[in-house]
Amino acid sequence: MGETAQTDHPAGDAAARPRGSRLRAAVLWEQHMAHSAHLPRFLVCLAFLVTFLLVRGITYSIRYHWLPVLHDVQTKGGLHIHHLVWGVLLLLVAGYLAIEFDSPRWRGVVAVLYGVGAALALDEFALWLNLEDVYWARQGRESLDAIVLAAALFLLTISAHPFIRACGREARAVWRARARRPAPGPPAGR
């Protein structure tokens, strides 16, 4: 008697945490995703999207000289090594590691390597098709189309996962609570 329900997470149950708090998000992560078979899919998707956004930000920064420390990288002979090359190499490494180390301990690492490699390679998909550097040309749009298609497929693989649904419910509850708050009135004394 007098026993309380224990959870596997030291922070406790998500319901005991205030809506929208970081601790609540951490508990939801622990309850729904941390030990799930869906974790590698989530990591692939996250690594893919973050890498794509970073690479596009870097390439735009180089093209428009936004940050002076970033510049086009070329060998001494003038050869520009496209990030497609690094993407393909990462995909090869991820594939080999997936075969060689088929254990849950390596799945997260392989998933991140795969997501990063896929983003680097698909960001230059137009180069594959046209066999020339068309990154900033009209044909460069083909790379964005490939990225959007891959991202949509990755997002579909994780969209029905309980963690994603729990985060959606959490976001809706926070939004509703904020919508119910009365608008601030004029300051007192005026």
Short overview:
The protein has 190 residues and is an all-alpha fold. It is 62% helix and 0% strand.
Would you kindly provide a written description of the structure presented here, covering whatever features stand out?
The protein is mostly helical and about 190 residues long. The protein has 7 helices and no strands. The radius of gyration is 23 Å and the shape is globular. The N and C termini lie far apart (about 60 Å). Mean pLDDT is about 80; it is low at about 1-10.
Described by the principal axes of the CA atoms, the overall outline is globular
State the distance separating the first and last CA atoms. Answer: 58 Å
User: What portion of residues belong to β-strands?
Assistant: under 5%
Low-confidence stretches: 1-11
Largest sheet: none
Number of helices: 7
Order of helices and strands: HHHHHHH
- Radius of gyration using CA atoms only: 23 Å
- Count of β-strands: 0
Q: Indicate the structural class.
A: mainly alpha
Q: Could you estimate the helical fraction of the residues in percent?
A: 55-70%
Question: What is the average of the pLDDT values?
Answer: 82
Break the fold down into its secondary structure elements and pairings.
Layout: H1 22-32, H2 39-64, H3 83-100, H4 104-122, H5 125-130, H6 141-159, H7 162-180
Offer a few descriptive terms.
single chain, 190 residues, mainly alpha, 7 helices, 62% helix, globular, disordered N terminus
